[in-house]
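Box 3.1 — From sequence to structure: 4-O-methyl-glucuronoyl methylesterase-like domain-containing protein
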Amino acid sequence: MPPLALGLLALLLTLPASAQPAWRSMSPEERQAYVAELQREAEADRQRMMELLGVETPSGLPSWEDDPNRPAHIVPREGTVNWYDEAGNVHVRGEWGRWSNYVEAEAGGPEPLDPLVLRSGRRVETPEQWWTLRRPQILEDYVVELYGRTPAGTPGVFFRAVGPDSTAGGATVRQVVGRIEDARLLPTAPRIEMTLYLPEGAEAVPVVVQVGGFWGQSDELPEPVRQALDRGWAFATVETGPIQMDSGAGLDEGVIGYMNGGRPRDPDDWGVLAAWAWGLSRALDYLDQAPETDAARAAITGHSRNGKAALLTAALDTRWAAAWPSCAGAMGTSLEKRDWGETIDNVASAGGYHWMAGTFLTYAGRWDAMPGDAHFLMALVAPRPLFVTGGTTDQWSDPHGEFLAAVAADPVYELLGDPGLPTTEMPAPDVALTSGALAFRNHEGGHTPAPDWPVFYDWLGRYVE
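Predicted structure (token representation):
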């Protein structure tokens, strides 16, 4: 989702559950004031981190209207501070002075670093060298540096069903809540809130876990759930807000705040994406114990920022059998050092910095200094099945950059025994490259996973059935 396009309803979905009853009782004016306060708190926290790290933004930049570097073909749109071109692409200027780019000849970016070259410069030649030498290096140099270090001693979680199972559309529906084992059950403590859909007579069946729920849908069963059940699979959704609020204003709450005792983050502390990954892995713990589901055949998926979380979760926890990050963009599936749509500078804004470790801010405005790129995160999933998707009109997420990242990760899949992608040429819209464990599709359309669900299920079935 482009910056500054997060509406009030969308913000509600990012709040911890404890805040939502109060939100529902607010007047429109009170909600606007609440949102403004969250934004002020987030900006103050980001500024504190930037000062701690010595990160500065350029001073003396002209206004957007007067900026001589502003693309000439873009115009402001009423009701938003963003600017747009004739194709509908959003244009913003990052705080380090760069405007959004959608011209391939100007996308630039260095050649992606070879994931099979060690710090010493020696090349990885065997799977054993990958597992024992190179993969740990990428986890430390790229994941910990940018997404933060998951702290030792995270709390145990115990799960219970909330009320009896219900039925919907022929499925058994179970609401499950995981709470930390610590006796200090503070209102701000993290929780794992999961909705589990089970086919009739389910016993150790594959399960697809979606980061986030189905908001705004009136169907008894959302279509992706119905498609999974038709295959005899289970489907689960895990809410992110109860794990960690999607805002820099909430870093003193949730699991990050719990582990820090409510103190502000240090630069290398984990960000919200890593916190969500922790919670998603705890949900997998439950699925491993439930007799109806087979956690060894659990796939994780998410869309947009939730796609970033899905990819990171699969990279950090090798128990996940497969992953599908949909339209995940920068710090997800698109090459970050490439200047197209969403960039590092956009993620480093007050609306996205909290996803990452504080140290991530040191790379804003100096992208080439980053110790890796999106293909490193993809490579950490290998050789497990990974389905990368974009949309032709979702240029903010950079579908071409997502394909290039998959191409750059391909050598790791090949080293570990998978045939890899069948081509290095960007496929035509709706043409699915699904012959191997590393798969790609760029659907005709925009920022949505909807067109890709049937293709995903057909491809995933080869690995979990």
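Summary of the box: Residues 1-10 have pLDDT under 50 and may be disordered.
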